Amino acid sequence: MHRPLLHATLAFAAVALSSPALAQSPAFQQQVPQQAVGQPIPNGGQVARQMMSAHRSNRLKAEFTLQWMQIPNFSFWGARITSMDQDSPLRQIGLQLGDVVTRLDGTRVSTGKWWDQSRGVWALPQMERHFGRTQIRNIRSGTTLVRNEYADLGPRWQVPSPYPGGGGGTPIIVP
User: Fold this and answer.
1) Domain of residue 57, residue span
2) Which among 86, 72, 88 is positioned nearest to 134, based on CA atoms?
């Protein structure tokens, strides 16, 4: 029997997903629109794609949506890959769109997460804090198999901040 990894599919639900109990409640699940990304939402006339925001990692050269996940015996935050550049180090290890990254060098990707109200997305600073040979714990989309793979994330160098302010795009030193 296939078990879905995902409790809610739209990023706007991520605020509510900070409470896993709320995400599992029937009342909450009835409020989550079931339209596919890009389809009109009946009462608002807005497009779901406008609410679907993703964190951009310049280090991993990919975009992620933080989601509350569940596989047998485990519930956790995972960063689902929503887009990847052609030269993304994630491609080195065979990751694809829809796959989930859970840890980098043993540290949860959700460590230090914060809600960026202006962009409507969970900011994931952990995605920029790793360099060189890095262990990436991941789960293939549609499975419950947890894998540990290694990818070269490049040397410790300056990464442009994806967040404006402090000079608007001024590079930051990655710790």
Assistant:
1) 11-30+44-155
2) 88
Alpha-carbon distance of 163 to 119, in angstroms, equals 9
Residues 162 and 56: beta-carbon distance below 8 Å: yes
Type and span of the H or E element at 62:
strand 62-71
Give the tens place of pLDDT for each residue, 116-135: 999 889 999 999 999 999 99
pTM of the entire predicted model: 0.63
> Cα separation of 43 and 6, whole Å?
25
Number of helices (H), then strands (E), belonging to the chain: the values are 4, 11
Which residue is associated with the tokens 């890095």? 134
- Residue entry with tokens 């989550």: 32
Asked whether residue 4 is domain-assigned, the answer is: no
Q: Is residue 147 part of a domain?
A: yes
Rounded CA separation 3/153 (Å): 32
Report the C-alpha gap between 86 and 72 in whole angstroms: 33
Q: Please state the length of the chain.
A: 175
